[in-house]
Write a structure and sequence with these properties.
By secondary structure, the chain is of the alpha+beta class. Helix content is about 35%, strand content about 20%. The protein has three helices and four strands; from the N terminus they run αβββαβα.
């Protein structure tokens, strides 16, 4: 599969979401908030989960922002340290209008959180 986000890269259990949000670290940035923690499974992949409130907008707006966030994660997951569970919650649909803005905001938050691989780690 060339496009899309396969199941091993997704968070989908309610207990995982509760655990991460209650026990993880948080960073706020331009239009979104992320929570992250190291995965409990050794050698695990980086996984993404999303929490999108109805306050963001109608179903069309919410689904578009989720698609943009998934695509941003998919394109940049090699730059993020392995074995991290991430939850992203968009807060403002005005700043997350296109893929470039979403990627910029997402990568800036990951950088602020210290989740990006160092260039010397390649």
């Amino acid at each position: 599969m060339l496009y899309g986000l396969p199941k091993p890269f997704r968070l989908h259990l309610k207990r995982d979401f509760k655990d991460i949000i209650s026990n993880a670290r948080r960073a706020r940035g331009e239009g979104m908030v992320i929570w992250w923690r190291p995965s409990l499974c050794p050698g695990a992949r980086t996984r993404l989960g999303m929490v999108v409130s109805r306050k963001l907008g109608g179903a069309v707006v919410r689904n578009r922002v989720k698609r943009l966030l998934r695509e941003s994660f998919r394109l940049n997951r090699e730059k993020i340290q392995p074995g991290v569970d991430l939850i992203v919650s968009p807060r403002s649909s005005e700043t997350l209008t296109d893929l470039l803005n979403v990627q910029r905001a997402f990568m800036a938050l990951c950088g602020r959180a210290g989740l990006l691989k160092n260039s010397s780690d390649k």
